[in-house]
Amino acid sequence: MDYAITDPRLQLKAALPQLADEARERAEEFEQARQISDDFADKLKNAGVYRILVAEAQGGLGGSLLDWFDMATILAEADASTGWVASHGACVSALIANTADEKFVETFFADPDALGAWSNLPRLQTEEAEGGLKITGRWSFESGCTAATWVGGMLPRPNTPDDEPPQFVVALTPVDEAETDKTWDPVGLAGTGSHDVVFDNVFVPWERIFDWPDSKPNYGYPTAVLVPGGWIISICAATTHLGLARRAIDETRKELEGKIDRFTRGPVLAKPVIQIPLEEAEGILFACRAGMTLALNDVWESGLRGEPLSQELRINVHLAASTAVHQCEAIVRSVYDIAGASAIRRNGVLQRLYRDASCLTHHITVSDESFERIGRVRCGFDPLNWMI
């Protein structure tokens, strides 16, 4: 009798432990190369990582937000760079499926290796041409661009009146029509390959230009609930940091296990100064993970009901994500501080986790400023906007 797994979601779930083990073993290699290696990126594609949030009818796995969450945190715990590019790339695929022109969606997902990458940091000159735009310039911090088949980024919609706030669109082109300038050389998350993508008078037809993040879904629920709003990128940062915090706690316990205090001759791990921060970290991590799980479940339930996200749900999920990022960064720092002098080894795991945790707190969707944006909307000073 053939017991082979045929459900693609179950196939991905079965493949995750091996993918995570390989990411863990190769994390230093990815950091040194400043990108996830091509062969490993292919394994992520073949497993369906980047299509987990795309409907089956569009060529995806038809997974839920909690399926995505479990996948992303498992990979992030193994290697934060892998977790970020996997979660971010999966969300990019979902956004293309739900916001882009129907013809482009069909073209994109007809390729089993398709992967999109875009950035929200343009330095561009654009010129309208018949049927589209000619674009010259670059986007910085284009995570996962080394494995992408389509690249580009956000830019202001042309001809928006000066007295109106800017409206943004995303323009994408095949990767062989662009150049990658390998500028990514950060303290942490070096393996994400977040280099600059450069366009030199690239023509992008209107069918490959679409509204985002202030966009309307072009596909049915439940995946339509993923737009509009920047909250979907904030949850990628949250899953990365939840994985980082889990790994940091576990590595600190491993580092201290068996060590004897030179003065008391007692186990170092038993000291109150060690136990208290470790258990505080466990409690905060549990609360952050529970908050994210609750918020994502509420979002998906709204989608299953065929309802767009309410202001309350968008605030809740974005706030849960921003909180998780900052609290988990504090967890990594706190357990690093008690791990002992051996934690400062340049090639040590805790040193890499410490570096990785220092990066996404600066991301526009979850920076300190995100709390102010959320608060102003909650208090009625600002209307709900695309940043949330």
Give a brief rundown of this model.
With 388 residues, the protein is α+β, with helices and mostly antiparallel strands.
Commentary on this structure:
There is one protein chain. This protein has 388 residues and is of the alpha+beta class. It has three domains: 8-110, Orthogonal Bundle (Butyryl-Coa Dehydrogenase, subunit A, domain 1), CATH 1.10.540; 116-211, Beta Barrel (Butyryl-CoA Dehydrogenase, subunit A, domain 2), CATH 2.40.110; 229-378, Butyryl-CoA Dehydrogenase, subunit A, domain 3. It has ten helices and eight strands. The protein has a four-stranded mixed sheet, with helices on one face. Strand 2 (122-129) and strand 3 (132-142) form a beta hairpin. Helix 1 (8-33) packs antiparallel against helix 2 (38-47) and helix 4 packs antiparallel against helix 6 (231-256).
Structural class: alpha+beta
**Strand residue percentage:** 5-15%
Query: CATH H-level name of the largest domain... which superfamily?
Result: Butyryl-CoA Dehydrogenase, subunit A, domain 3
Can you summarize the main beta sheet?
A: 4 strands, mixed
> What would you report as the Rg, rounded to the nearest angstrom?
21 Å
User: What is the CATH class of the largest domain?
Assistant: Mainly Alpha
- Alpha plus pi helix count: 10
What global shape is seen? globular
Order of strands across the biggest sheet? 1-4-5-8
CATH topology of the largest domain: Butyryl-CoA Dehydrogenase, subunit A, domain 3
Could you tell me the mean pLDDT? 95
